[in-house]
Design a protein that fits this description.
Layout: E1 2-4, E2 7-11, H1 17-24, H2 27-30, H3 41-53, E3 61-67, E4 70-83, E5 88-95, H4 105-120, E6 125-131, H5 135-144, E7 147-158, E8 161-171, H6 172-181
Helix pairs in contact: 1-3, 4-5
């Protein structure tokens, strides 16, 4: 497990799938995700089974928040499409529990993921994609150290209109500087 303060990242378990199902069928949650069609519990079960077949480095991680003496599942995140030759990968995150939105947990989780990517996986560059309409997520990523690398203009059609997709990334050298400044 990966810990920092009141957060931890752990392997996903089958019992998490029920919560994931609720979140990926909530329009507020999926507004910032690539998902746009409703998913069944069977779809989520199949998704979970496919994750077990992935490279262990690319399996999703559950995001948990300390709640007294126990832990509360609030979302999931992960590293995927790792290119070991170029030492780069893409990141993804879903904070599905709306009761913890706008409290800085997304930024903290991204910090944990960056630490994992650079200190454990020995990557040199990580990036993510974020919709132009998702300004809160862009601010979250900027706080975590991501910089805009480019914009795919009107690259997706969502909710009745076209939206830009921003590519944001962090280099290990940039992360090292930020880490030393803290």
């Amino acid at each position: 497990m990966i810990y920092a303060g009141n957060l931890r990242l752990r392997a996903i378990e089958h019992e998490d799938v029920r919560r994931f199902y609720e979140w990926v069928n909530d329009p507020d949650v999926t507004r910032g995700l690539t998902l746009y069609l409703p998913l069944s519990t069977r779809d989520e079960d199949k998704w979970f089974e496919r994750q077990l077949e992935r490279d262990p480095h690319e399996r999703p991680l559950a995001i948990e928040l300390r709640a007294g003496d126990s832990w509360k599942l609030i979302g999931n995140c992960g590293v995927f499409d790792i290119d070991w030759v170029s030492s780069s990968a893409e990141l993804g995150i879903m904070i599905g529990d709306k009761s913890v939105w706008n409290q800085g947990f997304g930024t903290q989780v991204m910090g944990l993921l960056l630490r994992h990517c650079f200190e454990t996986l020995n990557l040199n560059r990580v990036f993510l994609r974020v919709y132009g309409a998702n300004a809160p997520a862009r601010r979250c990523y900027q706080k975590a150290g991501f910089v805009d690398e480019g914009c795919l203009r009107q690259a997706v059609f969502r909710r009745g209109g076209y939206d830009d997709v921003y590519i944001m990334g962090v280099l290990r050298s940039e992360w090292d500087v930020r880490r030393l400044e803290k």
